[in-house]
Design a protein that fits this description.
Length: 106
Amino acid sequence: MTAAKKDLIREAVEAIERAIALHLVDEVAERPARTQERSRPEWSALRLSLSSSIHSLNISLSLLRLEDLHSPADRLALRNKLVDDAKAAGREAYQSVLSLCDYAPN
C-alpha cells in the first residue's frame, strides 16, 4: 500500500510540474505584450503557490519513506530534508500572497 501512496504523490508532483511548465510557456508567449513580471503578479503568485505545493508533497513522500529507514543517520538526514521542505513550502506560500499585496487592478 505504501508504494501505491508514493506513486500517487509522485504523480501529483509531476502534474504540478507540468502545470508550472505550461504556465511558463504561456508567460513567455505573453511577455512581449507586457513590460515586466510585476505587471502580472498573479503569474508570480501562481508559480510560487504551485512550487509550495510540490514541497508539501515532498514532505508527504519523506514521511512515507521515514518508516522504511532503520539507520539513525538515514532517519536524521530525512528529518533534515523534511525541515528544509517545510521551510521552502511555507516561504513560497507566503511569498505567493505577498506578491499580490501591492497589486491594484486597473
